[in-house]
């Protein structure tokens, strides 16, 4: 079909919210895909990804979660292949809500040469990082008179 390498298959998302769908969604996705999507938040922002629909070719011999053999969606907490893998998903079970810790989420969508399903759609949102402990700012107000008198 020629999706590979097209704008449908490699895309960066930088607006504050948006939708990511498999190529051709809601129709069946093409075979032999190696798609890559990156959601890139500005500094001090994080990304939350929420799946709305999910239907990828199932692996009937699936032993454990993440053992998908045919079609799968990988979600990385950062750059693809090099950052921690949050999960590998296939079948019809909708993945849990996913949050980045680095302001960057990557999705790798792989399909093999046979059996296509409807694919996936997900919504992402960027939000300000929650203030972490190391960013506490301590201010000491002046000691009230009267409390120090003996
Ligand atoms: Ca397939």
TrEMBL record:
One Pfam family cited in the UniProt record for this chain: CUB
Keywords: Disulfide bond, Glycoprotein, Repeat, Signal
CUB domain span: 9-127
InterPro entries documented for this protein: CUB_dom, Sperma_CUB_dom_sf
Gene that this sequence comes from: Nrp2_1
Coiled coil: none
Protein name (database record): Neuropilin-2
Signal peptide limits: none
Species of the source: Liparis tanakae (Tanaka's snailfish)
